[in-house]
Amino acid sequence: MSIRPLPLLWTACALLAAAAAQAQDPAIAGIWLPDASRSGRFPAEPPFTPEGRRIVSEWRASHDPVEDDPGKFCQAPGMPSLALGGADYPVEIIATPEQVTILMELHQQVRRVHLDQSAHPARPFPQRNGHSIGRWEDDTLVVDTTAIKAITFGSVPHSDRVHVVERIRAIDDGAALVNEVTITDPVMYAGPITVRQYYRAAPPGTRMLEYECTEGMWLDHEARRAQALSDGE
Asked: What is the domain extent for residue 67?
């Protein structure tokens, strides 16, 4: 006499298996290269609020665009700039049922998208990359990020009230990835700004490399030190 599985039990197992498979969706996992030819860019003249324009104008009036460029001092841009291409450096996505981890070669930044949380903490710790939670909508990963530290410099100046929503999915039969990024900041911008960032799949065998931004600063320091010692002899 054979024993047939109960329909309800079989259905529950199937749903759990499907959810686990989706949470580890291989379509978005892997190494991706920013595709500038398809990607949009944050507007050069965004719709600033009066307060936002004042903040940016004061920064620009008090800082030299070359000598006071934070990038020269290895200041990571943080979110939402990282979601807009990472200055054309590669991105690696690792997916598990509890978390999607986004590794940026630029400044070796790490973003963690928590899939096992349905809401942000009541009092999140502000960070450059903020706090991200995510959920799957079919084949699209929806990422909600808040608690981002205010940054007045860079291509996307923003306040600490900035809110970023991303919709990430694989396209072109897995040969490409698109991230639709919507930025809302009631302090800086009069309305939401949406930019689509495209990536192409990296060739097989591609590996992420180290990004040692501060090494040059150290070498320059050592060169000046050696010159000072030489001058003192």
From this structure: 25-217
